[in-house]
Amino acid sequence: MTLKEPSLDFVLPAELEAHEPPEARGLERDQVRLMVSYRSSDRLVPTRFREIPQHLRAGDVLVINTSGTLPAALPATREDGKELRLHLSSRLPGGLWTVELRRVEEGASKPFSEGQAGETLRLPGRASVRLLTRYKLQPSETQVPTPSQEKTPSRLWIATFSFPDLIPYLLEHGQPIRYGYVPRSWPLEFYQSVYTTEMGSAEMPSAGRAFTPEIITRLVAQGVQVAPLLLHTGVASLEDHELPYEEFYRVPPETARAVNQARADGRRVIAVGTTVVRALETVTDVYGVVHPGEGWTQLVITPQRRVRAVDGILTGWHEPKATHLMMLEAIAGREPLAVAYRAALERRYLWHEFGDLHLILP
Asked: What's the gap between Cα 96 and its chain centre?
């Protein structure tokens, strides 16, 4: 449980993993704990999320991701009868999808690497999925695979499904993706933010989960501007902490204008989640100007690349070695981030999508 300053290599105790939604612990959504950290002074303010209006101010632009979570986990059966779990990750052009195969052991799922190109797996409701080829991420200037990554087959497949109408099928047969630290299933509404507009994420953009209509109303009333964008998240890579895969994003003109005007006026831009940062930074040029746009991003934000569009972020607590920590270090700096993580461990904040939150401000 030791976090050495300024190292971000630490051991996450199992008891600090949030095993269930806060509602199951007798809390409202907005009663999860919140740590507010200031990168300029190492000042920490432990509080509850429902007090977040006290830490934002008139003129701030709060950028949210309105993507909704799909019930993207399906039972799948190989031709030899072996039972697996299929995780849908991202919808591709031409009716294709990236998917991941996982095996279930002692109630938890683990990657299954023995799939074969061309094989067909049976799904519920007389549906099926066909594995076409391993998914290969095209490297960019910010994302160059290491030699070990180049030798390791991708855990994702490009696949095609026998059913054309995806969302109704998933709503009938699918479940939200969950990992071993969440021992039982929860209804889909526990994985949605209150401002969802379009279904498409394989996993919940969880930084915004604690917002309620009442908190959003309070923020708007005090002069905080809420600006939406969309980024459909793919599946996580908890086991290997791989670099993130390509994800679909859409930044509307109104949001680009709001961010640009705020930066021109010297006002703060606060991202709700790492997904928002990835989308915004994808459409921000070297001069710091945000452009509207949509497409597929494979941007990886590191301390060397830095950030150009945001001044702060609301986010969850991320596992040691998680690639999200590189992004947070780019925003906060290594030493302030290490101070906050040490305090979160000492104060026993909870990790993962149902856990507590961290607001990083200038």
From this structure: 22
